[in-house]
Specification:
The chain is α/β, with parallel strands linked by helices and about 150 residues long. It has one domain: Flavodoxin domain (Rossmann fold). Helix content is about 40%, strand content about 25%. Strands 1, 2, 3, 4, 5 and 6 form a six-stranded parallel β-sheet that branches. Strand 4, helix 4 and strand 5 form a beta-alpha-beta unit. It is globular, with a radius of gyration of 14 Å. Bound molecules: flavin mononucleotide. The site of flavin mononucleotide has 21 residues, from helix 1 and strand 4. It comes from Marinobacter salexigens. This is Flavodoxin. Keywords: Flavoprotein, FMN. InterPro entries: Flavodoxin/NO_synth.
């Protein structure tokens, strides 16, 4: 089974809806996707499946509150995940300037510190450009899974 765990960070539900749309699509294509709405570190240390971060950005380039405990624990404990594939989808709003999609950068840095391996470029979805983040996320995720499960 091709397992994927999605780590969700969302304030108003956009990133959560995007993660659910990804699950709905991939589950019908032979993948087994788990959407983690309130992830904890043991969700990733208990297995080795590829990780997909699907988070929005809040505050001034910060990680949403539901993902923050995971992020803090990851940074503090740095459980080593050598070579583990991960991808990043981040929602933001380019009117925030320098902090645009900042939560994606924070998650990426933290995962790199665990020696995990990023697959694909970060997908940055700009709320100024689209009202339907899933319409950008689904084509991206198809390429991502193709690169992860080669
Ligand atoms: C209070 C607040 C702060 C935000 N700060 C940022 C930010 O620093 N950088 C950014 O790119 N987007 C920022 N955004 C935009 C959100 O990330 C964007 O609207 C996203 O689509 C929301 O997704 P969600 O519904 O999953 O929370 C902010 C939005 C709000 C309401």
């Amino acid at each position: 089974m091709k397992d994927i765990r999605i780590l969700v960070g969302s304030v108003y539900g956009g990133a959560l809806m995007t993660a659910r749309a990804i699950k709905q699509t991939l589950d019908t294509e032979g993948y087994s996707v788990q959407v983690l709405e309130n992830p904890v570190l043991s969700d990733i240390t208990s297995d080795t499946s590829p990780l997909l971060v699907c988070t929005s950005t809040t505050g001034q380039g910060e990680v949403p509150g539901n993902l923050l405990p995971f992020y803090v624990a990851l940074r503090e404990q740095l459980p080593q995940q050598p070579g583990r594939p991960f991808g990043i989808i981040v929602l933001g709003d380019s009117s925030y300037g320098d902090t645009f999609c900042g939560a994606g950068e924070l998650m990426e840095e933290a995962l790199y510190e665990t020696a995990a391996r990023k697959v694909g470029e970060t997908l940055c979805i700009d709320a100024l450009e689209t009202q339907e983040p899933e319409s950008e996320a689904l084509p991206w995720v198809r390429e991502w899974v193709a690169a992860v499960f080669v």
